Amino acid sequence: MIQWSTFFIQNSQLIINLRVSLGSICVPIGVLLLQKMAEDIYVNLREKLEEQGGWPQPYLFKFIVPSDNKKIALVEAIFEENTQVTLRQSKSNKFTSISAKEVMMSPDEVIAIYKKAAKVEGIMSL
Questions:
Q1: pLDDT for 90-121, tens place per residue?
Q2: Number of domains composing the chain
Q3: What is the DSSP letter of 102?
Q4: CB contact at 8 A, 95 and 89
Q5: Considering the entire predicted model, what is its pTM?
Q6: Can you name the residues that pair with 10 across neighbouring β-strands?
Q7: What is the edge-to-edge ordering of all strands in the sheet holding 124-125?
Q8: What is the domain-level CATH number for residue 83?
Q9: Residue range(s) defining the domain that contains residue 83
């Protein structure tokens, strides 16, 4: 029997963890359809940001990544040099939360940051 147990988005693809009677495997399912679903998330975000109005304005980005210096550096590199970035380790030190506050000129700039961040393996955008 095949059952899904967890799912997550990685590199704009939905990855579904399937549990089968012989063990667990992780496979991408319907990648083209699921990439469209990921794009719909950005469309919805753009609509909400446009409703807010008042651009340019400061925007607070929040991410969680595995506590790996390379992954943390990749996320920090997405932002301008003068961006206020705060790091906080989880109690177990397995994950690091990254908060970055930067003035964005438009909703499209916000979405561009999220798309760049989505390329970092294991990242969770909040």
A1: 999 999 999 999 999 999 999 999 999 989 98
A2: 1
A3: E
A4: yes
A5: 0.70
A6: 13
A7: 84-89, 95-104, 57-66, 124-125
A8: 3.30.70
A9: 3-125
